[in-house]
Amino acid sequence: MKGLRVILFPVPLQGHINPLIQLADILYYWGFLISIVQTDFNSINPSTYPHSDFHSIPLSLSETDSVTGDVIAFVLKLNSCCTIPFRECFSSILSDPSKSRVACLITDAVLYFTQAVADEFNIRRLALRTSSICSFLAFAALPLLREKCYIPLQESQLEEPIPELAPCKIKDIHMIKTGNPDDIFRFITSMVRGTKASSGVIWNTFEDLERTKLAEFSQEFQVPVFPIVPFHKYCPAFSSSLLEPDESSLSWLDKQATNSVICVSFGSLAVINEKEFREIGWGLVNSKQPFLWVVHPGLVPGAQRLDPLLEGFLQMAGERGRVVKWAPQQAVLAHRATGGFWTHGGWNSTLESICEGLAMICQPVFGDQRVNTRYVSDVWRVGIHLENRIERGEIERAIRRLMAGEEGEEMRGRIWSLKEKGEACLRPGGVSYKSLERLASYISEVLSN
Ligand code: UDX
To answer: Per UniProt, which keywords does this protein have (predicted)?
Structure first.
């Protein structure tokens, strides 16, 4: 692989940037030269990765384009607006005599348009899927679910199971809110087609977690698969953070008792309303458990109005409560004082929690988070699913069940065993390690020829 170059292109959203940058790091340490193409929207600072060669392409977003408002509209726009600038950039890297030979292109599976660009230049493309296999298969099944009349969703049927996607219920395939519901099908069909046409899929998961789903995917998609995770165990995610992590989270945790703190974060995209924000605040205060709560700008649209309320919660909690705009999440979850994680079920957060052996409370908001959460609660049985509306009494009870109850203890036992399996995967001879070796030789011996 000496002197071979890999070009990578992430979706410019935090939960997609982190795993792609981690993958770039992994490939660099395996001897590949790295070029990263990124949009000028949500770009990471190239100086954080001096060993990579960065290229920026324009992404013109209008005032009304809001990522959190309509993720589907955003990803469709990304696929249409980036085609020409990406093609030009890709072509210039390929024709640059100072650059070494390009072995392959690796792009997020969401960026399906890149398959045609790679084909045009006769370069092979690997797709990186940053979420779980179980959620990908649930997305891929949406057209079938529509044929079988599960969609459009009927309020009266939300609790019913979907035998084709067991253990998911109809409410778990809850659609992502978008201006035009047909856009979801347009996006899913294109992503599935782009994934099938790729030369392989790299998964941010490990076999012990999703063995049957991996087999199902391989059978249906017939492309090589590389589950090489947990990616983040190779490098810290916060170095690709778009927001500055508040390091005082760690000094505050240093003052707390071992396993006493519940950490709360809903990732980078999920939004909640003012009422839900109040219920969470009251639930945390009433639980009497120490808490570290990430309230990033944008979590509650119009959040400035909530500052006095937040101050009120913190006054009531006293030394027991801490709120930050963004945390060094991996370090926070690994801290000895952290005893539980209340998450939105984003896949990176879920994996980071599993890798620290931290049982969860999951409050899915949209998209893959619902399916991830169903697996956390019903399959791996390592978290409590908050299925109903956000309500202070229910939150208080869930925190007690997780942090102090027998049920929490049992979940900790199970997640600890998953953590150990994840660690074993990474060691030389482990399944993720072998998959990584297979990926490195596939890129250098098959794709580059
Ligand atoms: C979204 C989806 O929810 C996720 O499932 C999908 O795979 C990618 O897009 P997001 O909602 O941001 O991502 O959540 P998540 O996947 O959990 O990613 C958030 C990342 O930001 C994690 O790596 C987490 O460690 C990091 N983070 C979050 C911080 O570093 N600090 C914080 O305060 C909060």
So the answer is: Glycosyltransferase, Transferase
DSSP annotation of 321 reads: E
- Residue of 268, 329, 333, 338 to test ligand 1 pocket, by largest number of atoms within 8 Å of CB: 268
Residues 215 and 271 in one domain: no
Residues 390, 433 within the same domain: no
Does the structure show a pLDDT above 90 at 17?
A: yes
Q: Where in the sequence is the domain holding 232, given as residue range(s)?
A: 5-239+425-447
Q: Closest ligand 1 atom to the C-alpha of 343? A: 17
- Residue 13's SS3 state is coil
What is residue 443's DSSP assignment?
A: I
Closest CA to 200 of 423, 6, 428: 6
Is the domain of 433 the same as that of 416? Answer: no
Q: Output the domain CATH number for residue 70.
A: 3.40.50.2000
Say how many domains are in the chain: 2
From 447, 379, 349, 435, select the one nearest 30 (Cα to Cα): 435
Do both 208 and 307 map to the same domain?
no
- To test ligand 1's pocket by mutation, which of 14, 244, 246, 325 has the most ligand atoms within 8 angstroms of CB? 14
Over the stretch 122-163, which tens digit does the pLDDT of each residue have?
A: 999 999 999 999 999 999 999 888 888 888 878 888 899 999
Ligand 1 atom at minimal distance to the Cα of residue 326: 33
